[in-house]
Amino acid sequence: MKIMGCALYLSLLATAAHAAAGETDPYLWLENIQGKQALSWVGEQNARTRADLSRQADYPALRRDLLSILDSNDRIPGIEKIGVLYYNFWRDKDHPRGLWRRTTLDEYRKAAPQWETVLDLDQLAKKEQENWVWQGADCLRPSQERCLLRLSRGGGDAAVVREFDPAAKAFVKDGFQLPEAKSELSWQDRDTLYVMSDFGPGSLTDSGYPRIVKTWRRGQPLAQAQTVFEGQRADVSVHAARIETQGRRYDVITRAPTFFSTEARLLVDGEWRKLDKPDHVGIDFFGDWLLLTPKLDWKIGDKTWRGGSLLAIDSRAYLAGARDFSPLFEPSDTVSLANQTATRDSLLLTTLDNVSSRLREWKVVDGHWQSRPVATPAFGSLTVSAVDPDHDNRYFYSFTDFLTPPTLALAEAGSDQRQVLKQQPGFFDASPYRVQQWFATSRDGTRVPYFLISRKDLKLDRTNPTLLYGYGGFEVSLTPRYNGALGKAWLERGGVYTLANIRGGGEYGPAWHEAARKQRRQNAYDDFAAIAEDLAKRGVADARHLGIKGGSNGGLLMGVMLTQRPELFNAVVCQVPLLDMRRFNQLLAGASWMDEYGNPDLPEDWAYIRRYSPYHNLKPDTRYPATLFMTSTLDDRVHPGHARKIHAAMQAMGADVRYFERTEGGHGAAANHQQEADIAAMEYAFLLQQLR
């Protein structure tokens, strides 16, 4: 360890140990996102990191390979039925911002379909001199004659909303428009919207989301829209929607006091009526039926429904006080509910059985629910979505696993037959590799699953360059999925890939998430460390050859591993992370996540948060693994100050750290394929540099 001067040592201790008062933070100035001094600092770090990583021998080929995959015409264009046509949003080298385009289903089946361009985002951005990034379209059901397009400047969550006429392929003159904000809109009918937006001072929650619901009529100034509901400043958000299902219509307002709790109000006989349910119970509708999903165990009379169940009951009967539910799904220790989607007459449930997908179909016959299992592969991930829930029973069926490129098929409820629409070719030769599912034992004895993708002839000599990826939060499940870029950039260059299914995720349902929420958060970190130790024990990789990667909440996971167990790893890629857990609730959308982490302003919560907050657990006398922090200036969800500040603190310690901050793209991704390939190439070049 390098010997430091006493003054520097004490300064670093103060940096690492600063706690309650934000003003004692020596790097607080880096939270000024667009501040001149902060951006100058960012520019210096970016230049240093690019100079280092772009010089790596692997970087040029990596960037070229990754960009060719991202721009490849062999990718399956996902489609959505709008009206009688099938729409797709597409980016490639000639259209870096993207095309919104459409075709017929018969044309789509062809190897090279003919597409009709509906909106060219590159042309629009050039014409309007805006850095538009597509965020999607919400079209009026069932006619689909009008759509609300969301366009972001640079890729943040905040977006401009503009009404669009798909038939005319043009924006509607004097149509609905909203300025840039984190807005939500929902169609009531062709001339009326529910609108949730920034209406001025006091109209947002502490999390930065709308707290007021208004009804907005065509031609009416937004300022005259009628308020129908107001949430509280301390809420996360409010939302309103009109739900159309099997000829039934439900108007619903949901108020989210916290991230994982909701109140619901239904419009009944012209009045908004609060639904009698615990806040942890989510709701949906299917025809006459109310669908309820408790997150926690729910005791009704002498029956307790396990958290993660799906319960159905006639909506009118429920409003009248009945509680005789039809259970459509009840979880087990290894099987959880992943998703549900409705066709015209059937409800499709996707479940996870030890993190592999299964599919079951339900329908109502003579007032009673009947089900059947749908044949699926034994291993892998399924995604199903209704083609047109207003008119037919077809659905899109997509299957993939780590080594199997996606297949998109057309299926119909009531049948196991599927018509393959598209099958993506492989972007790397998968034949030398295999997938295994192993289990590690965490500190408290919990068995934690993880997937290992490696060559079939893997030598268990502990020297294999291995990348371990994790998330572990917000009930998000990590499932087997094909990643051509990973195969080309990592597996083909001798790497082993590991996907961790640690607690905090949703792989085993709400209980798996609850086991690592708030004061139980350390369980997720113990699980991840246990997998790292298991990889060494089994002979896959020792610490010298093991790297880790994660983003957002997974970036927090990386920060905790960096500060709690630095001896287990030799490289860390920490993307768009939370790291200062003392101030996370004061930065951008951070207040919305207190239901996940706790409230650091409460002494009893800060007591356990303080034990793992990465920014507060840096120690000057510790040897840290080489670390690459990646974030975005325009990330308006997780503040870039998290990554900026810890990098500055570690840099002052003399740690082996690198930093790169995108100037475009929001929390989820870069603004275009060129940027995405560039960032990924730097990450892989860094990992190869450290782990070979």
UniProtKB/TrEMBL annotation:
Glycoprotein keyword on record: no
Alphabetical keyword list: Hydrolase, Protease, Serine protease, Signal
Every Peptidase S9 prolyl oligopeptidase catalytic domain range: 490-691
Ranges where the Peptidase S9A N-terminal domain occurs: 24-247, 330-424
InterPro entries, per the entry: AB_hydrolase_fold, Pept_S9A_N, Peptidase_S9_cat, Peptidase_S9A, Prolyl_oligopep/macrocyclase
Signal peptide positions on this chain: 1-19
UniProt-listed Pfam families: Peptidase_S9, Peptidase_S9_N
Top-level taxon of the source organism: Bacteria
Protein name in UniProt: Prolyl oligopeptidase family protein
